[in-house]
Amino acid sequence: MLVEEIKDVLKEKRCEGTPRTYVYVSELSSPCDLKIWYGLTGAKQNDLEADTKLTFQQGSEIHRMMMHALFKSREIEVITAEADILDSDIVHGRVDAIFSRRGTDEMQLVDFKSSSGRAWDYIPQDSHITQCQAYLYFLENIERGWLLYLNKETQELAEFEVESDDGKIENLIERAERLIEMAKEGEEPDEPDKSEWDFYACNYCKYSEICKTT
Length: 214
Description:
By secondary structure, the chain is an alpha/beta fold. It has helices at residues 2-10, 25-28, 33-41, 50-72, 126-138, 166-185; strands spanning 23-24, 76-84, 91-92, 94-101, 108-115, 144-151, 157-162. A 5-stranded mixed beta sheet has the order 2-4-5-6-7. The chain has a two-stranded parallel ribbon with strand order 1-3.
């Protein structure tokens, strides 16, 4: 009885979104042009089931907990939290925190992630590395970036330093610009070549219910 009631409350119906003229940092590494294009055109996302919404809420709570720990650290000084990318009309995003070690002037950034089960064996994930590299690209006065993971099953923490790769990010920005123009013109991208994709790429896509390729 209670389980069904809670699931009914947590479910979320989604309507069509609003078209936009920018991509999010988290979208840059997507292998699928069509997925990015759906977001740009404001296409309807899949309705949220209770388990998915709970996963999102857990991620938010993990983020809050790790941010709280950094603020209390005697060795780390948090300069700003939730720092927006500035001066970019093409890419929007917000890095979790910018910090420095106390007694130094070197600013660094960190992005928090959570993982569990089999996925823990494959961290850091390529998409997360690309996201962190994008923050380094746009926040030009910061040269060091970190991914900080929490294993939701074991509570183990792991950190990875990320090196910048401006060439890769510039190529992804060019791709984003092309997709933005296609969305404005109502021109759909070609169907993607899925031969080298991870097995879950389509199964967990938020546009799987409307996508013509699934």
